[in-house]
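User: Look at the shape:
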Amino acid sequence: TYYAILFIVLLYRTHVKLSIQINGQELTADLIESQTSKEFMALLPLTFNMTDYNTREKYADLEQPISANENVSEDYETGYLYYWTGGGIVVFYRHDGKKLQGGAVKLAKINNGLDLFREGDTVEVTFELLPV
């Protein structure tokens, strides 16, 4: 039983990928294991009009909040999808040295195409799970 659980955990960590469709292009991201990311996965697929904020991020509100009880940080890194504790998702494409109000939880590491988030004030973005 222990080895079966370990196998499932390792499979989850290495194979759960997101498809991110933006401006007609598909990006991929590796989901980070957490209760918050599991709740986010349960909502997929989702399409948002993500709005630029502070020329460092694209942001969209989630219709329903998800839990953010673990690994909440006021620091952030570019190239990650986060759940902001205020109730939305955020992709950071530039770091301005400031802290986040309320904090955020990492959901996924974006593997390619981060510059597409720099384009325009608002972009339509679709998030969905990739098959294993």
Q: What stands out?
A: Residues 2-15 form the longest helix (14 residues). Residues 1-10 have pLDDT under 50 and may be disordered.
